[in-house]
Design brief:
The protein contains 5 helices and 3 strands. The protein has 122 residues and is α+β, with helices and mostly antiparallel strands.
Length: 122
């Protein structure tokens, strides 16, 4: 397959399809698409450098609880997905939205919890 054609195919995918594609690539090649995290180690007795405050978070759905329909409605509102794609995303659990500002992520977690879901910011 031509690289440009492949790129065009990827551009045409929905968020849910891209998520499934990344998971398949990770499983096939034994890699992770997550950004590497640098581990900062301080020498004994030396002061550790101040950590930079994280400003962007991923919204992760851990469990949809007893009110799946309510959670699907919130996911549709947050992502702009159609009903079928939002339902698949809720049922598969995992990352709902990436690189959200802290305030937006906190509000989204609150909405999902209000609907009965278990969600967190990562």
């Amino acid at each position: 397959m031509d690289i440009q054609k492949f790129i065009e195919e990827v551009k045409g995918m929905t968020v849910l399809e891209l998520n499934e594609f990344v998971k398949a690539l990770e499983a096939e090649f034994g890699v992770s698409a997550a950004a590497p995290v640098a581990v900062a180690g301080a020498a004994a007795g030396a002061a550790a450098p101040a950590e930079e405050e994280k400003t962007e978070f991923n919204l992760v759905l851990k469990d949809f609880g007893a009110n799946k329909i309510g959670v699907i409605k919130v996911v549709r509102e947050l992502t702009g997905l159609g009903l079928a794609d939002a339902k698949k995303m809720v049922e598969s659990l995992g990352t709902i939205k990436e690189n959200m500002p802290k305030a937006d992520a906190e509000a989204a977690v609150a909405k999902l919890k209000e609907a009965g879901a278990v969600a967190e910011m990562q």
